[in-house]
Design a protein that fits this description.
TIM Barrel, 14% strand, 41% helix, eight-stranded parallel sheet, alpha/beta, globular
């Protein structure tokens, strides 16, 4: 079953035009769902290309404590999938460039209503793409069929250390973008990026995918975003680092929208060089590292 055709404009601009794109992950409802329109407008104004918006679900096996606490707060506040979709539907017409990729857990959120009804509801709400978490392998084809019927682009994922057949499958399934997970483990890790593995995986996906490649897990700051750009990624996904700023703002009674805005602003700001080291310019910067392809 072929997925829906890639979106005409794409989630992220061509690399040669705009550098490394940005996707920011948040749990819907943390901060309160009433603030989501302000958060989305701020991200839109800040030039962020994609909001990965999760319908909260408990005890994610792929997330670390920061994201799991965030999901718990949203669930305790009574956030439901329908409330998330209603909020997206209300705010979506006001966005100029920001796209919304909905993340939903199959077992907690999608299995009950079914793939067909859920994908139709997500598309009708104005979601620009869908990433299903915990989808059983046997449901892959029915999912692609349901997404095709709803004309809802698919975000497919694989790991930087996935087998070549898994990388090829993600490239074939994705019609929104490929989410390349930098390493095994849970989100929020401080493990350094494995540049060799990432370069190989990005190169393989660029050869096979029709859509951009976004890299997440362990991406924390402007230096990580820049590094992923040098390796050939179209975009960087900022997850736990963004959620942590929301958490700290709420704990301190500060405005979470303003807190996140300051963090996002710094993601594209070059880090200051060590004392005595001149600032890098376009004339002195090293050439981008070419992506490698082939089996690992």
């Amino acid at each position: 079953m072929a997925p829906v055709e890639p979106t005409e404009r794409g989630f992220f601009p061509p690399r040669e035009d705009a550098g490394t794109g940005l996707a920011v992950f948040l749990n819907a409802g943390d901060p309160p769902l009433a603030l989501l329109p302000d958060l989305a407008a701020m991200l839109d104004d800040s030039g962020v290309e994609c909001l990965e918006l999760a319908v909260p679900f408990p005890d994610s096996v792929t997330d670390g404590p920061v994201v799991r606490r965030s999901a718990r707060r949203a669930l305790e506040a009574g956030v439901t999938a329908q409330a998330v979709l209603d909020t997206v539907a209300a705010l979506r017409p006001s966005l100029r460039r920001l796209r919304i990729a909905l993340l939903a857990d199959y077992g907690h959120t999608v299995k009950g209503p079914g793939l067909g009804p859920f994908t139709a509801r997500a598309a009708a709400a104005g979601c620009d793409g869908l990433l299903l978490h915990g989808l059983p392998p046997r449901m892959r084809e029915p999912y692609l069929e349901a997404a095709d019927a709803a004309a809802l682009p698919v975000v497919a994922s694989c790991y930087a250390v996935s087998r070549p057949d898994a990388v090829a499958r993600a490239a074939a399934d994705a019609s929104a973008y490929v989410y390349l997970v930098a390493h095994y483990g849970r989100s929020g890790t401080t493990r350094p990026l494995d540049e060799d593995a990432l370069a190989a995986a990005i190169g393989a996906l660029r050869d096979a995918a029709r859509v951009p490649v976004a890299v997440g897990f362990g991406v924390r700051d402007a230096a990580d975003v820049a590094a992923l750009g040098r390796l050939g990624a179209d975009a960087a996904v900022i997850g736990s680092a963004a959620v942590a700023h929301i958490e700290r703002a709420r704990a301190a009674g500060r405005d979470p929208v303003g807190e996140l805005a300051r963090f996002v602003e710094g993601l594209r700001r070059p880090a200051a060089p060590p004392e005595g080291v001149p600032h890098m310019t376009a004339a002195t910067a090293p050439a981008p590292r070419p992506a490698r392809t082939g089996e690992r």
